Amino acid sequence: MATLARSTMRSPWTVILTGAVIVTLAMGVRQSFGLFLPQMGAALDISRSSFGLAIAIQNLVFGLAQPFVGALADKHGAGRIAVGGALLYAAGLVLASLATSAIGIHLSLGLMVGLAMTGITFTVILGVVGRVVPPESRSMAFGIVTAGGSLGQFLVVPGAQALLTEFGYRQALIVMAAAIAAIVALAAGIAGKPSASVDGGPAQSAGQALREAGGDRNFLLLNLGFFVCGFHVVFIATHFPAYLTDKGIDPAIGASSLALIGLFNIFGSYLFGLAGDRLRKQYVLAGLYAARGIAIVLFLLLPLTPVSALVFAGVMGFLWLGTVPLTNGLVSQIYGVRHLSMLGGVVFLSHQVGSFLGAWAAGYMFDLSGNYDAAWTASIVLAALAALIHLPIRDAPIVRAEPA
Fold first, then answer.
1. pLDDT tens digits, one per residue of 236-266
2. Which CATH number is correct for 12-194+205-389, 3.40.366.10, 3.40.190.10, 1.20.1250.20, 3.30.1360.120?
3. Are 344 and 208 contacting, i.e. CB atoms less than 8 angstroms apart?
């Protein structure tokens, strides 16, 4: 792959592979948090809605801070941002292991981990990848990095369950903190300051880029669609293991389901990224969201068994984060890559607002009704809406006037 512009960053494949490993660690640990709900809830005497609130805070902070952290990465480079994110993430996990109340969990797993994630996950990493990969290969490269998050889920979730079973949640969190700290060394692979302009047109300030995108209907539709993605994935990642346990399914099936989601999304993320380089991304996204809705309907209509739970996990896993390379691919295609981390961060904020509701509102509705029926219904309705709103998106690059 040739670079789009000269910069002080590493070669494309170095950036892609290093970024994928960083995302593997960061997302793998994050996707295991749902396994901690039963044990931490019992040990600390906190409700599901209270634990869900910690994950909801994490996702909301993750989203609110992402545009600002993305702008810093666009200006100063991703390496420094990744080091800070890794150190804060590890500290948050250690403090969570020491927490004695819901407030401690809200501050550590919620605030600290949420802020830390902004520097070592998709938005910042895809921003640096987008600047060193040519447009015709960009969605595929995004898919490779996104698949790293799923590989982490497949590898880390079973390990987290084993640590929980053998040593308890406090020791499990300490081990995961040590794994996250390894990202500090990996940050060198994505270090370097971006070029002033890599889009071939007139240079833009961050404010100009925000005003341009904010006034475009396509950007609004992308934000609405990614909101739905956030609701789906965090609702399932946080509450699906508990849902299965409530129905009398062995807790090991819940852990295996999360691992299967990660396994199948390795293929889904890559293949959807590949599809985005060959087909209209907005139409692929519409089909993906429609498929999610159909999968949920069939899962709820069929008898619940360990096999049906695992099959559902595999199907949802294939559809899980295929939205990421496609959505970020559209942002880069329409608005360019100079401010991709920042603009991708704005879209990701919408994703995290959906994530907040998927984690907290589902737990709140469970506490009120004793079941997840309302959350499943909301997931189906949102999937249908997301499929429809992607159809009118126009994917032509914005043409900017040259300065006089």
1. 988 999 899 999 999 889 988 988 888 898 8
2. 1.20.1250.20
3. no
